[in-house]
Amino acid sequence: MAEARPTSLYAPSAMVFTVAQGDDAAATVVRASTLSCAPTATGTHPDAQAACAALSATGGAFDRLLAAPNPDRACPMHYAPVTVTADGVWQGSRVAWKHTFSNACAMSATLNGNAVFAF
Prior knowledge:
By secondary structure, this protein is an alpha+beta fold. The chain contains 2 helices and 4 strands. Strands 2-1-3-4 form a 4-stranded antiparallel sheet. The longest helix has 11 residues, at 48-58. It is globular, with a radius of gyration of 16 Å.
């Protein structure tokens, strides 16, 4: 009987990222990107290598993508929610993560140039 062998030395990592207007499941997706990090960085993400490096730095805790908002950036106080999501498999584990910001300015200030949602 043949022994089962893995097809790759790397744990699978294939993700879909979205940015949507709204704060619930009915939010309208305005941008989306795909990313695979093993064995090499590929996908529709415009800077796959930087995004894979940023994801690796989280240690699988996707809330680490969020930084303290940039104190030098003033954002309006209006409510126009923007939701970002990360869905797929990261290093062999299923991921379904989302975070809602009060508006696009708050999203930009909190993500503070993070490569994962820079698409």
